[in-house]
Design goal:
mainly alpha; Multidrug efflux transporter AcrB transmembrane fold
């Protein structure tokens, strides 16, 4: 791949990530609120950076297949994050008296088994694809595997923690969130 194609690939890849991020913030803001959207996008950036860092560390080729894998990871991770945010929103309505930190922890616990089982099933398929898929799918499945692992971590631990941190405090206590 020449330098002109590499420069164009980088530009198109970054543009695709920016457009996907903006559209996801709009969607999450409409469905939830802006704090959820910002927390989700920051968690997605984490997934993309971890996957890109892995490929950079081992000096694997970054091509259109890698860009497709990153966009797929973002789609997978945002789905997982939205499921957890939806549970937080439901629990905000049901557990009004509960402290916010406790409510967030309960919401995460309620989704943990589903999150890990789904991700484990996806990981098994990606490992099979990595081992048996041949040269053409190797880097795609590798990027997806790293991204899915990172996505589970970011959906459960990063996105929810960021959202919690974005909730304003009054006299050292989190303000009640109105949904």
């Amino acid at each position: 791949m020449g330098p002109v194609i590499g420069k164009e690939l980088r530009r198109v890849g970054i543009l695709a990530l920016v457009i996907a991020g903006i559209l996801q913030i709009i969607y999450i803001t409409i469905r939830f609120e802006l704090r959820f959207g910002i927390a989700a996008i920051l968690a997605l950036l984490h997934d993309a950076i971890v996957t890109l860092g892995f490929f950079s560390l081992f000096q694997f080729e970054v091509d259109l297949t890698f860009i497709a894998a990153i966009l797929t990871v973002i789609g997978y991770s945002i789905n997982d994050t939205i499921v957890i945010f939806d549970r937080i929103r439901e629990n905000l309505k049901l557990m009004r008296k509960e402290e916010l930190a406790t409510l967030v922890n309960i919401s995460i616990k309620q989704n943990l088994v589903r999150t890990f089982n789904t991700s484990l099933a996806v990981a098994f398929v990606l490992i099979a694809l990595l081992v048996l898929g041949g040269e053409t799918t190797r880097y795609f499945s590798m990027a997806m595997l790293v991204g899915v692992i990172s996505g589970v971590y970011s959906s459960v631990f990063i996105a929810t923690s960021l959202w919690y941190d974005f909730v304003p405090t009054v006299k050292g206590k989190k303000k009640p969130v109105k949904i």
